[in-house]
Amino acid sequence: MTQRQWFKLHGWCSLPIWMLFCFICITGTIAVFSHELTWLFNENARAVNPDGLAAMPVSELVGIVQSQFPNAHITTVMTFEPYLINAVMFSSDEIPVGIAYVNQYTGVVQEVNQGITFINFMRSLHSWLLFPWQNGYSIGYYLVSAMSFVMIGALITGLVIYKKFWRAYTQPKIRVSKGKKSLLTDLHKHGGAWSIWFLILMSVTGLWYFTQQVFWHADIDIEGHAPLVQTTDIPLGEQAQPPVSFAQALQIAEQRFPDIRPSFIMMPEHNRDMFKIMGGGDFIFFDQYSYRLDINPWNGEIARAVSPDSMGTLQTIQHIVDPLHYGTIGGIWTKAIWFIFGLILSAMSITGFLLWGSRTVKASKARQTQTQDQLHHPLPQEEAR
Q: Per the record, a Pfam family (predicted)?
């Protein structure tokens, strides 16, 4: 292929879906700081601790919500960063679906959210564009994850076009005074050169999300469903409450994995269901759901325990992709790096479109001028022959 053909291919890797690609980049960049933005704009989501108190056990927070809403059915508990509240999800006669924002230091219920949260909204908007899910798949999820192929194509063709890209590191040069086209070209080239690592990371993680969606669509489980309680474990006769409490289930989980930090806990939904406890640990590259335990509420036995040490290849990939994609591996500092390069990637899609637009307009004007010249100055008949 000639340089011109590579250049055209580079353009077509992005331009036909420029607006969608740019929108996904921007929403993903915002989603990186969704927790921090929630803290900034919603004071009820802040876990203020002026007296330096120790965090209360999650079981006590559940008890506080239960005392304020006596007929509430607690379904899920979520924990976040230390500066954010704990979220207790429940349903009651007055509140069909509610999320109690409980300050883990003071025990105060600061808000009851009955709608979608900003964190969930931004992750959903970025991941599947709020397209509906049906039969295990979402068209939006396919569209977003398919952008990985676009990024791979843009990266490869860009490296072919910009052969000496390392000059952007050793001899960076932005021609501010040479006109709009030169400025946009330099910004686009330098942004691409400095973002090579980020483009590779987003492409690889995006390919996994696409593969994961194919698995979901085909009903292939990467992680098996939680086992059910055996009927022999449930006492006969009158309906009884399971003897193992929520607090005891947490103690069992901590005994099994001493370094576990529970982040997502689901209560039993029926008498054959189990406590499902998920959390993070000391494995830096794994997400906050890398530890998974299913605990029998009738006898306290651990029916299933999964940790990074016992995962298979696909499970390991599934639990390291999110931290790499959203930059949560190193806390606020890596989030800031991912946020900056997310802005650069968004700007690259805009500058690339502006360059393509300027060339298209210029080429169109040149064709119009040539046509007009031919109309006003036709060739002699013999010369035309």
A: PepSY_TM
